[in-house]
Design goal:
Blueprint: H1 6-21, H2 28-40, H3 45-52, H4 56-64, H5 68-83, H6 90-99
Length: 101
């Protein structure tokens, strides 16, 4: 987890947030998953404001610019969020596919 740069962590959290909200329902399991990511990435309340300032184009450039190994791990994180509530919603997959197709 620590091999990600701060800006990469921010981009990942930004996308995870989009996935979490994609189906219109934020499930408690999705919140738990996000809390674990915050912890693993050492994301603080202060970081959340910086994360909110990154736009979607920057986010895509950051994630698409990662090494193959980081992309593989990031994809697993995204799918993990999509599965957190017990089902993968098509809108969640749409978001993930923007980065990994």
């Amino acid at each position: 987890m620590n091999s990600f740069t701060t800006i990469e962590k921010y981009a990942i959290v930004k996308v995870l947030s989009h996935i979490m909200k994609a189906d219109g329902i934020v499930h408690p399991k999705e919140e738990e998953y996000m809390d674990k990511i915050y912890s693993d990435f050492s994301i603080t309340i202060h970081d959340l404001e910086d994360i909110s300032n990154i736009d979607d184009i920057q986010t895509k450039l950051i994630i698409c610019g990662m090494s193959g190994e980081k992309k593989t791990f990031t994809n697993a994180l995204f799918v993990g969020m999509a599965k957190a509530d017990g089902m993968i919603h098509p809108k969640e997959m749409e978001i993930i596919n923007q980065f990994f197709i």
